[in-house]
Structure formats: structure tokens, C-alpha cells
Write a structure and sequence with these properties.
With 239 residues, the protein is mainly alpha-helical. It is built from 9 helices and no strands. The protein is elongated. The N terminus is likely disordered.
Length: 239
């Protein structure tokens, strides 16, 4: 799963992937319980894929924030060698690894076209208002318009982001057991249902082929989703 953080999917690729997953889920459900099973299988597979995409997005955001201090420090080094802010940012972007590279490469292209550094980084900050990217972009935009020790100021922001990332990592490590437990508890009912359907259990036939069974299935899945969201909220509130 950690490798997914480096995957940069376009909107077209996401929609094509969801379409393929929906067809796969419909086929699996149809084999188990006909047309009703096809609808449930499609919904379940798509919901699972959306959950994976959400997890991937969170992992990617954390990876980007972990790489921001290095990007800022590279800009500060460029400033100390005598470069202006724009060329220093372009040079830093060229050596930035993925996934942050996919964020800063368009910025470097705009800077090379002659767009003002302050405008480029202010727009970047506005696109990511709730993350460390906003702080980093705002610091660079301020450095573009302010004089004085710009390299030192950017280094200071890099140190702040590095300290914050270290703190978040420590908190996540302390709450990792609770997160795993919550995921397992939420996944057990759905996993047991899929296992029963795969071996042709009478209970699965009841769930997928009778009106009462379908009602029980929908209510059960809904309660399972509510429970998973509730546990996730509790764990996140503690972290």
C-alpha cells in the first residue's frame, strides 16, 4: 500500500478503473445471486475501490508533506548561491522526487514562462489550503516580495514542517494498534459474508435471494459502514 503514494492518477484513469471494477463486481454478484447480486456486487466493489482511492490520497498527501522540507531547503540553498527565487525554485523542482514532483513541476513550468514567483506560489497555496503545502507556498510567496534573509526564513519554515511531520508520525505510531483493530472489526462482517457466498452457504442464499434477506443485508451493511466511520472518528480524535 505504501507504494500507492507515488501513483499519480488522472481523472480519466480513475473513471476507467471504477468502470472496470463495477463490471467485475457485477459479474461476481451475478454468479452468486443473479441480477440483485449483480447490483450489490457492483456497489460493494465500487465502494471498496473508492475507499482505496481515499486511502491512497491520504498516503500521497502525507508523503508530499514529508518531502516539503527538502524542497524548501533546496530553494534556500539556491538562494545562498546567488540565484533569484524563481530559478532557485525551478532547480529545486528538478531534483524533487515523486509524488511532490507532480505538484511542483507545473509550478516550475509557469516560472520558466516568466510568471511572477509570488503569483505562482500564491495560487499553489490557494489550491491546498488545509495542508503543509499552504504554509510552504505562502512562505515562498512572501519571500518573493520581501527582502532580507529570505533563505533563512525559508529554512525556518522547513524546520517547522519537519518538526510537525515528526510529531504526526509519532502520534500515528502510538495509535496504530487502535487503527488496525478498528479496520479488522469493520471488515469482519463483510469478509464473513463474502466467504459464505463463495462456498455456497444457505445463509448467503437467504441474504441474496429473498426480500427479507436483502433487507437484512442492506441494514447490516449500513450499520457496518456507520460503525466503521464511528470508530475511525474516535481513533482520529485521539490522534
Amino acid at each position: 500500500m505504501a507504494a500507492l503514494a507515488n501513483v499519480n492518477l488522472t481523472l480519466t484513469q480513475v473513471w476507467r478503473g471504477l468502470g472496470a471494477v463495477a463490471l467485475l463486481g457485477a459479474g461476481f454478484g451475478a454468479l452468486q445471486a443473479g441480477s440483485v447480486g449483480a447490483l450489490l456486487g457492483m456497489a460493494g466493489f465500487v465502494a471498496g475501490s473508492l475507499a482505496v482511492l481515499r486511502i491512497n490520497r491520504h498516503r500521497r498527501d502525507r508523503a508530499i508533506e514529508g518531502q516539503l522540507p527538502g524542497f524548501l531547503e533546496a530553494i534556500a540553498r539556491g538562494l545562498r548561491t546567488g540565484l533569484q527565487l524563481g530559478p532557485a525554485a525551478v532547480e529545486a523542482a528538478s531534483s524533487t522526487p515523486s509524488p511532490l514532483y507532480h505538484e511542483v513541476a507545473p509550478l516550475a513550468a509557469e516560472l520558466q514562462r516568466g510568471i511572477r514567483s509570488a503569483d505562482v506560489f500564491e495560487r499553489w497555496a490557494s489550491r491546498r489550503p488545509d495542508s503543509g503545502v499552504s504554509l510552504a507556498a505562502a512562505a515562498i510567496a512572501f519571500a518573493a516580495t520581501a527582502g532580507g534573509a529570505r533563505a533563512r526564513a525559508i529554512d525556518g519554515v522547513a524546520a517547522t514542517l519537519r518538526d510537525r511531520a515528526a510529531l504526526e508520525l509519532e502520534v500515528r505510531s502510538l495509535t496504530s494498534q487502535a487503527r488496525v483493530s478498528a479496520m479488522m472489526i469493520a471488515a469482519l462482517p463483510a469478509g464473513f459474508m463474502l466467504l459464505s457466498a463463495g462456498v455456497g452457504d444457505d445463509g448467503a442464499s437467504f441474504l441474496f435471494t429473498t426480500p427479507l434477506g436483502l433487507a437484512v443485508l442492506i441494514i447490516g451493511l449500513g450499520l457496518d459502514v456507520i460503525g466503521a466511520l464511528w470508530m475511525r472518528r474516535i481513533v482520529n480524535s485521539r490522534s
